[in-house]
Amino acid sequence: QVQLVESGGGLVQAGGSLRLGCAASGDIFGRYALGWFRQAPGKEREFVAALVWSSRATYNTYYADSVKGRFAVSRDNAKNTGYLQMNSLKPEDTAVYYCAAVWSGPAFSGRNIYDASKYNFWGQGTPVTVSS
């Protein structure tokens, strides 16, 4: 079991930056895939980024096309914390951001990484508002 708590959301002007945090407690955090999703008003929850433990004993990163080159996902296992650095923010990035986790076994790969229903544990969400 993993419990997740997001932090760092807020109001920022277009072009600005925010760093979201995802503090984890419970199970061994290091072997869990960490995903970030967002949900804008009236829209479905969508994939943003993920950091997944690979068979090569390292982490692979994945990004939605809409955030590539602007967002960066990272984690500090010693602190049981994941991060989403968001730069060059746009008004269309406005949403509630959620971190999520799932045990990163061999079956967790491919399209599963982008699918919110495949993640077992979720934080409560943190709102991000980007003004134009």
**Rg:** 14 Å
Spatial separation of the terminal alpha carbons: 40 Å
Low-confidence stretches: none
The coarse silhouette is globular
Instruction: State the total count of DSSP E strands.
Output: 11
Question: Mind sketching the topology for me?
Answer:
Elements: E1 2-7, E2 10-13, E3 18-26, E4 32-39, E5 46-53, E6 59-63, E7 71-76, E8 81-86, E9 95-103, E10 121-122, E11 126-131
Parallel strand pairs: 2-11
Antiparallel strand pairs: 1-3, 3-8, 4-5, 4-9, 5-6, 7-8, 9-10, 9-11
What does this structure look like?
- This protein is mainly β and 132 residues long.
- Helix content is 0%, strand content 52%.
- The chain contains no helices and eleven strands.
- It has strands spanning 2-7, 10-13, 18-26, 32-39, 46-53, 59-63, 71-76, 81-86, 95-103, 121-122, 126-131.
- Strands 2, 4, 5, 6, 9, 10 and 11 form a seven-stranded mixed beta sheet that branches. It has a four-stranded antiparallel beta sheet with strand order 1-3-8-7, with no helix packed on it.
- A hairpin with a 4-residue loop joins strand 7 and strand 8.
Notable traits:
about 130 residues, globular, 7-stranded mixed sheet
Short description:
This protein is mainly β and 132 residues long. The chain has strands spanning 2-7, 10-13, 18-26, 32-39, 46-53, 59-63, 71-76, 81-86, 95-103, 121-122, 126-131.
